[in-house]
Write a structure and sequence with these properties.
It contains 8 helices and 8 strands, in the order H-E-H-E-H-E-E-H-H-E-E-H-E-H-E-H. By secondary structure, the protein is α/β, with parallel strands linked by helices. The strands form 3 sheets. The protein has a 4-stranded mixed beta sheet with strand order 1-2-3-4. Strands 5-8 form a two-stranded parallel sheet. A two-stranded antiparallel ribbon has the order 6-7.
Length: 206
């Protein structure tokens, strides 16, 4: 299960609590990144918060839960509630190599795709170089200060292969959306990716 998978599930669980039951793996409610503002409304129902990109920290958290290990030593990126107190992890780690993150399992997260709708989305990069006041990126830029380049890119062959795998799994896909924070932040790369996409995929995209 990936970061996007779990954050989406928890968002739906919190917003529509009468329609979904809490996940049975741990019977815990965990809030991710941009959804943390919901804690003001659902604070008493939340067991943990993952700040920023949580692939590494959340994996460690799940490993500890499944083996019954002590959670007192909190992983980085995670705040959790224990005995009514909030324990804060030491530091927040940024994922520096996006090619090391797992590919989302669309069988779990994309119910629109499973229901036969003709499109799905992909992320080829993370971060934006700008500081718009209405956006989440300035918060994350401050959170990851000193950890290297904030705008990071997946390899183009890796992106194309993910799309090919999705098309093979879901042959009814007729259009693609790229959900990057800023797809054209690096224009030479964007042009190279578009050329590879045209040559190897060829479907309409936005």
């Amino acid at each position: 299960m990936t970061l996007f998978t779990f954050s989406l599930f928890i968002f739906v669980t919190l917003v529509y609590p009468t329609h979904l039951q809490p996940i049975t793996l741990t019977s815990r409610t965990i809030l991710f990144s941009h959804f943390c503002s919901l804690i003001k409304r659902y604070g008493t129902e939340i067991d943990a918060i993952v700040l920023g990109e949580g692939e590494l920290a959340f994996g460690e958290y799940i490993d500890r839960l499944t083996c019954g290990a002590d959670l007192t030593s909190v992983p980085s990126n995670i705040w959790l509630k224990k005995d009514g107190k909030v324990l804060k992890g030491s530091g927040v780690k940024m994922v520096k190599d996006l090619d090391e993150t797992p590919i989302p399992d669309r069988d779990l997260i994309d119910h629109h795709l499973r229901s036969g709708l003709p499109g799905t989305s992909f992320i080829t990069s993370r971060g934006c170089p700008y500081h718009c006041t209405y956006c989440h990126n300035p918060f994350l830029q401050d959170l990851y200060e000193g950890q290297g380049r904030y705008v990071r890119y997946r390899s183009i062959p890796g992106v194309i292969q993910e799309i090919k795998d999705a098309l093979k799994r879901y042959p009814h896909i007729k259009e693609v959306a790229f959900s990057d924070d800023m797809f054209t932040a690096k224009q030479d790369r964007a042009k190279e990716l578009c050329k590879a996409y045209k040559d190897e995929i060829g479907l309409p995209f936005v």
